[in-house]
Amino acid sequence: MVTAPKPASWTHSEEYVAEDAILANARARAEEVGVVPLGPGAGAALRFLASVLDARAVVEIGTGTGVSGLWMLRGMRPDGVLTSVDTEAEHQRLAKETFAEAGIPSQRARLIPGAALEVLPRLTDGHYDLVFADGDKQEYPEYLSEALRLLRPGGVVAFDNALWHDRVADPAQRDPDTIAIRELGRIVAEDDTLVPVLLPVGDGLLLAKKTWVPEA
Q1: pTM value?
Q2: Opening angle at CA 84, ends 31 and 129, nearest 5
Q3: Between 7-14 and 40-52, two packed helices, what is the crossing angle to 10 degrees?
């Protein structure tokens, strides 16, 4: 019988990879401007994923104050570049402070202000190793379509808040955000070109690998 982890075990898992003072400062900036960054467990998972992929090029939807971006930059190749999109220029200014405090060279973080669905179509097809989405939840299915175009074969798309405060698993919850995230999960699970996994870290991290398609 599979048993759910007890709260103490969940907390231990979330805190297993400790955050440093730079990430703590980024979280403090986030709280000041009303941004909710991903949890440390999800951050550690993203860093691990960027490292496993030997990621050279990553797209992030939702810069925030740089918490998730810094986790990924620390897992990427030393010459890897993060392209991060956010509608709030002030948040991106704070993210730049986070990256500078961490000693990340400015050329490794390309921050683009604007709406994701307006910016993403301008990015290069098949160029990216990892796409991470933590933006407008109702746009998640559309982010998936863009991500699959942007990813190279073998690349991975990741979505934060895939459990959405325990609402996704409750069929009685029918608000627009929950419906969109639930629909995203269905699309990913039913797509034979993807290898999916839903990790119960933070508020849920949905990952899907874009499989290699054999040449005809």
Answers
A1: 0.95
A2: 125
A3: 50
